[in-house]
Design a protein that fits this description.
The chain has seven helices and six strands. The chain has helices spanning 9-12, 14-17, 22-30, 40-51, 56-68, 86-97, 106-114; strands spanning 3-7, 34-39, 73-75, 100-102, 119-123, 127-131.
């Protein structure tokens, strides 16, 4: 059974910042077949950024992020979580599903690790690494 990997917005920006194929690297690091999951609130966040005034670099980053969504399963956030900030929605979903969170956001990483949720992140601008363990 594949392991769920919940991606946040900034993780989808990685390919425009560093020479990393986040999908292939994830599979290699986890040594399991991942199931890439994006919460619909993250999709809304990306769409909002695409529709807001932005620099050329941000335009490129969020255009790539939107294209990468096609490689992920979009999951609708439960109604009782909708009022929470997106990062808390990710934490709650990952806790319930026993999933890995893929993020470079320091605050989200710290909260995830304090809950015992494994975190996939960029190390050395050229590879991914896993903090915590998966079973």
């Amino acid at each position: 059974m594949p392991i769920q990997v919940v991606l946040d917005t900034n993780f989808l920006l990685v390919p425009t910042q560093f020479p990393i194929d986040v999908f292939a690297e994830t599979e290699e690091v986890l040594e399991k077949r991942p199931r890439f999951v994006i919460l619909d609130s993250v999709v809304a966040e990306i769409n909002a950024r695409l529709n807001a005034p932005r620099s050329l670099m941000e335009n490129k980053q969020f255009t790539v992020a939107k294209a990468l969504l096609e490689r992920c399963e979009i999951v609708e956030v439960e109604e009782n979580l909708r009022s929470l900030p997106v990062d808390l929605q990710i934490l709650e979903y990952a806790t319930l599903q026993e999933a890995v969170i893929a993020t470079n956001d320091r605050i989200l990483r710290k909260k995830a690790r304090s809950r015992g949720i494994p975190v996939l992140l960029v190390r050395g601008k050229k590879r991914l690494t896993l903090e915590g363990s998966i079973i």
